[in-house]
Amino acid sequence: MTTAVKSLLVAPVSAALLTPRRLARAANPPRMLVSAATWRATGYLAGHALAGSVFCAVATTALLAGLLLGQLTLTLALASGTAWVVRCCAQVERGRAALVDAPIPYAYQPVTEPGLAGHLKARFTDPAFYRDCCYLILLHPLLLLLDLLTLALWLTLLAGAALPLWFWAVGARQADGSYVHGVRLGRSNGLGPGVWIDSWPAALIASAVFLVLAMYASYAVVAAARLQLTVAHALLRPPPDPLAPARRVLAEPGPLTAPPTPPGPDAGSTAHGGHRT
Q: Of 171, 165, 175, 200, which is closest to residue 184 (Cα–Cα)?
């Protein structure tokens, strides 16, 4: 593994794994179910499933347009907008992390050369641009799959816990043409295993079972949000500075930066006008 790959991927991932998160896990399952961390994690995952898909489409379109338009000299200025579009999408993702944690910091390579060529060189040689593309485009299918599976399990259990509130409003038509109110848990065609919920006692028992399962599923929701937040920190934040410890030591006061000690009275002098005895 080359030094460039280590500085681009390994170091940010190591720093992200060591970064503390605000999504605390409660030891008590009932407390975990009603904790703010569980519902913030739900909003974070749902937001990425919606907004992340839009950002992936926008960033992919901008990247492909930049690659095509960059081949033409007249549209070279338009191709420079690709990095700006990708950066805007990544900035929204960094700010969206404030829902479960602090906003993700960022640092982009400054433009040091004048002209359009200098801007293009600074934008497309910046490692942060490629990390943004990796998060927004390459990893989006995997993160979206994580979001959908977690939310599907979580919302199904919550709907089951609320069965007494809505089971009586749902019905199904039987084979003889009659219409029966209730919900079938299992195969909807009635051929496979399942339970028919058509009374209040059955709804209350099923609701209690779903509620217990939802208590433990809340840990999975928080774990999924923490995993996605770790990936976001690993790719969207600047890599750690290897010289940071040395800079910190130089910035701290030391023997070379300590103020000089004022000279004391002469050891050989007395209080009688400073004459030696």
A: 171
pTM here is 0.76
Residues in contact with 267: Cβ distance below 8 Å, sequence separation at least 6, in sequence order:
none
**3-class DSSP assignment, residue 56:** helix
Residue 204 in tokens: 């209350």
238, 106 Cβ separation under 8 angstroms: yes
Pairing type for strands 171-173 and 183-186 reads unpaired
Query: Is residue 8 a part of any domain in this protein?
Result: no
Radius of gyration, alpha carbons of the chain = 30
DSSP bridge pairs for 180: 172
Number of domains in the chain: 1
Residue 27 CA to residue 219 CA, distance in Å, equals 10
Lowest-pLDDT choice from 69-73, 186-190, 225-229, 266-270: 266-270
What percent of the chain is helix, strand and coil (3-state, nearest 5)?
A: 65, 5, 30
Is 172 inside a domain boundary? Answer: yes
Identify which has the larger pLDDT, 94 or 68.
94
Q: Report the alpha-carbon distance of residue 251 to residue 66 in Å, rounded.
A: 43
